[in-house]
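Before we proceed, please read the two lines closing this message. Tell me what the token row says about the fold.
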Amino acid sequence: MKRILVTGGAGFLGSHLCDRLIKEGNDVICVDNLFTGSKDNIRHLLPNPYFEFIRHDVTEPLYVEVDQIYNLACPASPPHYQYNPIKTAKTSVYGAMNMLGLAKRVNARILQASTSEVYGDPEVHPQPESYRGCVNPIGIRSCYDEGKRMAETLFFDYHRRNHVDIKVIRIFNTYGPRMDPYDGRVVSNFIVQALKSEDITIYGDGKQTRSFCYVDDLIDGMYRMMNTEDFTGPVNLGNPGEYTMLELADRIIKLTDSHSKMVFCPLPGDDPTQRRPVIELAIDRLNWKPKVALEEGLVKTIEYFKTVVR
């Protein structure tokens, strides 16, 4: 049994990770300030004697004794991280510094949940880990994009200078049950609008692309990365299937048997036009690749949304 800290553990990904870690027989400390996380996501775990919830903001130091740290704390959808961009940057940078300091003190292995947003609006497609990105440092998404890039910098500097045992993953678009229905992400937006038979909001011409990874696949990759020896990453975790926004909207309309129509709105600033991971490194080093097809994952996600959308 390991004692494992999960920051952002009451969020969408964090709560699924806590489930996996408990299932594997670990003692889990879930830390979250509940800005975007929710106790509803972890309510089923609260009675478990091997699960502990602490309401705490990672921009402040935390003192616990643990064997592993998963650092997931940060708002991840554009409306949430743009709501308070300075706080978002602080969460990425100060949060990374505080968790790295903790890992150094207690000699814990630490994993950083980075993001495909470090690639910005890519000039290389699809995106391998060797690509350094095309990010606007002064744009409306910079608080998140550059915050995550700086977190990666801190992780590797702590590794080189202080010999901290680090892992870095770059997460591509992930979806599934426990997503916040109103977080402003494309999958949740489309499903909520379709279930309500409202117009489906397409930004730009709808031809921009994304790759969508089901949450169970992502958590499996994250868990494998943490428990792999002699490999720091960074490593892409995502589904290499690539879909336009028009294709995604069409599938969701059909799966929900909705009467929604597509309407077009201006594209937000710095919104990437294409996104697809190269995952050969994950296949080689983690023996990982996604198993859940888009339609199968959407069906499961839609069933969940039917229980929470009114």
The first helix runs from residue 12 to 23. The mean pLDDT is 96. The radius of gyration is 19 Å.
